[in-house]
Amino acid sequence: MTDVHTPRESASGETEATRPFGENETEPDVSGSGATAGWPRWAWRQLTSMRTALVLLFLLALGSVPGSVLPQQGSDPVAVQQYFASHPGLAPWLNRLGLFNVFAAPWFAAIYLLLFTSLVGCVVPRTLRLAGSARTPPPRAPRNLLRLPHSASYASALAPSAAVDAAAAVLGGQRFRLRRPGAGDATFWVSAEKGYLREVGNLLFHLALLGVLVSIAVGGLFGYKADKLLVEGQQFYNNTTALDEFHPGRLVSGSDLAPFRLTLNSFSASYFTTGESRGQPETFHAYVTYSPSLGAPARPYDLQVNHPLSVDSTKVYLIGHGYAPVFKVTNARGQVSYQQATPFIPANTGTMTSDGVVKAPDASLGFIGVFVPTGIMVGGTLESVFPAPDAPAVSLVGYSGNLGMNSGVPQSVFQLDTTGMTKISGSPHLLLPGQTWKLPGGRGSIAFTGYKQWVSLAITYDPGQVPALICGILALVGLLLSFLVRRRRIFVRAVPSGTGSVVTVGGLARTDASGGFEDEFASLAAELAVGGAAGGPASDSREPSNQSETGA
Amino acid sequence: MSVNQALAQVSGDFLIAALVIYSLAVLAFAGDFAFGRPSRAAAGSARDTAEAAARVAELTAVGAAAAGAATGDGGAATGDGGAAVAGGADGAIPPGGAAPAAGLPSRRQSAFRAIWEAGPWVRAAVTLSAIGVVAHLVAVVTRGFAVHRAPWGNMYEFVTALTCVAAIFFGYVVVRYRAWALGVFVMGAVVVALGLAETVIYTAAGPLVPALQSYWLSIHVTAMTLATGIFFVAAVLGIMYLVAERYRARVAAGKAPDGNGLLARIPSSAQLDKLTYRTVVFGFPIWTFGVIAGAIWADQAWGRYWGWDPVETWAFITWVLYACYLHARATAGWRGRRAHYIQLLGFVSLTFNMLVVQIFITGMHSYAGVH
User: Fold this and answer.
1) Which of A305, A511, A536 shows the shortest C-beta gap to B70?
2) B327, A1: Cβ pair inside 8 Å?
3) Quick check: is A308 in a domain?
4) Residue A5 lies in a domain
5) Rounded Cα–Cα distance for residues B247 and A422 (Å)
6) Which long-range contacts (CB under 8 A, 24 or more apart) does A411-417 make?
7) Residues of A in contact with B366 (CB under 8 A)
8) CA separation for the pair A414, A431 (Å, rounded)
9) Helix A39-47 / helix A106-135 crossing angle, nearest 10 deg
10) Residue A5 to residue A25: CA distance in whole angstroms
11) Which of B104, B300, B317 is closest, CB to CB, to A306?
């Protein structure tokens, strides 16, 4: 994960300047000398090598692909069931490989855990090296600065030592770290280095990614996600029995839920009525009241898509909506055995044609129905032409007999098991609001008395969310630092020339990711020339040439 | 708010105009390629080199003479010094193409003068491209005013905006690096993408569904548009690199003649490599920001910041592949051709996400509006 593992060892004076940050770092020699230290060391070196990190990164990308191509248990379990039904031979094998739950599969976890281990193995030694390099001075100036990628020279009226002093003052003023010749060195030079923030940024980026992973784990352990379908006029308490679906984190118990109460007063949707976007939803409003805790006063809230409700650190989202026709079913003796709003599930979100069932076990009656908000008859079948309830209607098929609801086998409220039942009439029966269908044979009746709307809510709590965001921002900051800041070295040497001196300046930048060192070097060299020639008539502000471009 | 159809019409007309002008620009770029001044790039860099050497000599001589004059000392020694420094300058040419500063053109000469001097074909091509960009920008902005929102709410608008980013970014590359030799390729790709947007995925101006009615649309999708436009340019540069590198290798092996043919016109593989890298370095943080902004928006709209929705998964794959490229370029044995293959794979994944996943795979991001 890093671009420096083991700096190339080189004792040559010319390359000393470039040594700790040359571009050609080589991999540690993993085949030879490492063997003497035993295979764990060898394995560790292999794991923390850049090649391994690259391969793991590749595997991470590759491993994610099936997660987007195959249906996933986490996001769409129904689609997984359908896949099993349509590919009975293949599906069990894919399932064995965890391909229906890729992002929770052990092999996927193995990839990213190895990757992060590799990253830690790289980042920790680097942190130590950074701390070390912040204390050690820059390397000695190489003998021939003109061999460096960037160089310039100028004449100074000052003696070599004074010219170097002047250059050191300019560089020091720009917060370069300096190194001067030690005792016994008869030459005149100064080495300067700057840009340690690049390394800091690089480390910050990788550590922040680790932080994102930890935050996701925290959310997975301590957070929860729940769903609740609520019809207008209904209320619910946020506890495990009231929720339709509850997916707790591994360390969450039912008593950890925020104890709020929420009532759906009304729901309204508006749709575009003209033009090409006719029928497209324009706004959704769920008008709710909620009490943050038991006994607290109720507060109103206009819940919309993109505007979740926050109660403490739990959030409530508007995820879906639909119609709930209200039915009244009477049995053969005229007693009301069923009277309630029955949520129907949209089969077509464009027209809101919705499917549902009515189960009245006390009357031994069941109905499979279709609700249309704006219905018209097309060739004998009922179709919806608009999602708003402009002309609502239901079409029902009736069944009589035992609904099997006492057998102990759990049933979906959206499905009718007709195996033990007999169909009442041939064709579906159409009802408009207020109409009643008297069932043949004195079996009873069903009345379509009106409709309500329902919303589906997602209730989530994720304590890893804010840390993940902070780590994400830190990663971005680190990335920008490592791209924008360049670690660079400037060397200045002066040799006597007459009573003055000739000064050469050399510059070297590590991976200059965003470019621009040429320009920085040119202006810095110009500044040095002006500063170094101070007092002399040569101080007319001529720009020193930047020979870096002669390599074109 | 309803759509201003008249303004939407203006936007559509400007986009057609931009497409036509871009096409003419591509023809002009191609004309430069076919009939323009031969070995222009080589001559230019030779001139730069000569200029630089002359400056060194001049500067040293002046400085030395001045120093000499100031002290009244003889000129012979300083003359030697000057010669030595100038000689050093010649020796300073970095060895091999791997040196960090293997010469992208400098800005010393005004970019506009350079374009003017590059001949009538380049002049015409750059001028046409600039006019095209203006028309393109007008099209994007008027579309935004027509629909009262950021004009990237469906795939057609997204491609329109990202090609605009690519064209503008290429303009920057031309001014900064004099890389008009790449015009026929970059602008050609822009024309193809824009043409496909206009014909295959055209979507009439319309309002947004509630899920997209958020200021995060402007933040998340803007970042994704910018990054995609920049990666688009990087991909074209990467392909150019592979072509140039193959040519360089053939020349080095003696299988192809040096200095003539169309391939000698495009920048060297070392320059293209560096330019590609800087382009990706520019795009990568924007993509990262776009993914983070998308996660925040997903949390606002859907109640989770990351859910491995197909589009999210492919954005992640794209991010990982570009991260691979950035690391590969710093790893011995991976830089060069292999790194560029990874970079291009990243762009393939980005394009796959945009054109296949968003349109054909059902997920929470199914907003492409393509029927």
Assistant:
1) A536
2) yes
3) yes
4) no
5) 79
6) A413/A343, A413/A357, A413/A359, A414/A345, A414/A355, A414/A356, A414/A357, A415/A357, A416/A357, A416/A359, A416/A366, A416/A367, A416/A368
7) none
8) 20
9) 90
10) 7
11) B300
Same domain, A471 and A495: no
Side-chain half-sphere CA neighbours of B190 within 13 A:
37
As a whole number of Å, the CA-based R_g of chain A is 37
Contact assessment for residue A23 and residue A4, using Cβ atoms and an 8 Å cutoff: no
Alpha carbons within 13 A on the beta-carbon side of A192: 26
Q: A503 and A154 in contact (C-beta within 8 Å)?
A: yes
Written as six digits, the tokens of B67 are: 């120093």
Contact (CB<8Å) A275/B3: yes
CA count, 13 A, side-chain hemisphere, A534: 12
Whether ipTM exceeds 0.85: no
Domain boundary among A90, A111, A135: A135
Amino acid code (one letter) for A193: E
pTM metric for this prediction: 0.79
Residues A446 and A383 in one domain: yes
Quick check: A545 and B52 CB within 8 A?
yes
User: According to the model, what pLDDT value does residue B38 have?
Assistant: 53
Q: What is the mean pLDDT of chain A?
A: 82
A129: domain range?
13-135
Segment (H or E) for A311: strand A309-311
Segment A254-276 shows an average pLDDT of 85
**């003539």: which residue's tokens?**
B260
Residues contacting residue B275 through CB under 8 Å, at least 6 positions apart: B104, B173, B177, B179, B237, B267
Query: What is the Cα–Cα distance from B144 to A219, expressed in whole angstroms?
Result: 38
Residues A353 and A316 in one domain: no
- Give pLDDT tens digits for B167-190: 999 998 888 877 888 888 889 999
Chain A residues with CB-CB distance to B320 below 8 A = 57-58, 60-61, 64
Interface test with B, best of A70, A101, A144, A153 (most B CBs within 10 A): A153
- Rounded Cα gap, residues B250 and A210, in angstroms: 45
Chain B environment of A281 (Cβ under 8 Å): 209-210
Same domain for A155 and A91: no
Does residue A203 form part of some domain? no
Q: Which residue has the higher pLDDT, B273 or A9?
A: B273
* A382 plus A417 within the same structural domain: yes
How does pLDDT run across A374-417, given as a tens digit for each residue? 988 887 788 888 999 999 999 999 998 888 777 777 777 788 88
Phi and psi angles of residue A346, each rounded to the nearest 5 degrees, phi first: -60, 125
Which of the listed residues A116, A135, A154 is the one where a domain comes to its end? Answer: A135
pLDDT score at B65:
36
Residues A400 and A510 in one domain: no
* In the predicted structure, residue B88 carries a pLDDT above the cut 50: no
What does the alpha-carbon distance between residue A59 and residue A358 come to, in Å, rounded to a whole number? 50
What CATH number is associated with residue A180? 3.30.160
List, for residues A410-455, the tens digit of each pLDDT value.
777 788 888 778 888 767 889 999 999 988 888 889 999 999 999 9
For residue A2, tell me if it sits in a domain: no
Rg (CA), chain B: 25
Select the more confidently predicted residue: B40 or B232: B232
CA distance A137 to A179: 6
Q: Residue A102: pLDDT above 60?
A: yes
Q: What is the dihedral of CA A535, A538, A543, A548, to 10 degrees?
A: -100
pLDDT of residue B42: 41
> Do A64 and A159 fall within a single domain?
no
**Structural domain count of chain A:** 4
- CA torsion angle A261 A266 A271 A273 (round to 10): 180
